[in-house]
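ok so i was messing around last nite and threw this chain in just to see what happens. nothing serious, just curious
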Amino acid sequence: LVGTPPGETATPESAGYVVTEAGFGADIGFEKFVNIKCRASGLVPDAAVIVATVRALKMHGGGPDVVPGRPLADEYTKENLVLLERGFANLRRHIENVQKVGVPAIVAINAFSTDSPAELDLVRRLAREAGAFDAIPTHLWAKGGAGATELADSVVRCCNQPKPADGFRFLYDSDLPIKQKIEIIAKQFYRAGSVSYSEEAEKKIAQFAENGWEKMPICMAKTQYSFSADPALKCAPEGFDLPIRDIRASLGAGFIYPLCGAMQTLPGLPTRPCFYDIDVDPESGDIVGLF
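result:
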């Protein structure tokens, strides 16, 4: 959704829309987008699009495990409104999290050919009842961009609606102590009942405070498969303990990142990334430098 409608002349007032991907879920990607990216840039989103699928909601409703290489169970390819409504609790939580910081939420239902009209209608109704600005089935896999024009129109309407006086707000004040910021995220976005810290994490939190790093925002390293630190805990759990096994500081990026449960982090790029040594031989057309 970038640019101006066909046939219209671009002006500073109608120069289009900037779309950015925040990442997995309103508990992880959206939370970091708000509390880190918006805080650093001073920019405020006019709307947030939450992408959901009927199949994923059925899994959160108690559907069988999906195993790579095996055919999908009938629960995912045939109409099952009971599983779907039960799993909607997960999407409701994401909608609530977006609303918590004063941003309107639009649900994009990534429709599959096996989704029944009744299933799509159920998600639309429940999403609107949960407070979403709109919920729109999309068919980009089949129709390309034309399969999401209704979604784009809904985003435009949402962005152009009057903004409330008590609109966008951060989830926490960056001046708060490290533990307090972690626990606000854990309890308000994840719905944890408590947060526990390993001896190593406790030691580093004290060290970071002593070093003067306490005012940096928090970048939680947590599984995307659950609101908890346990990937197998589906739907919308609450009251669980969130274990922090370690905590690290990225001083260049300007944030502190706690590691929840067994979550691992991706390796960063070295000072000289390998792609500097990869090229194409102009004579043979062979790629060189890969090995």
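not much to say yet. Residues 107 and 135 are 4 Å apart (CA to CA).
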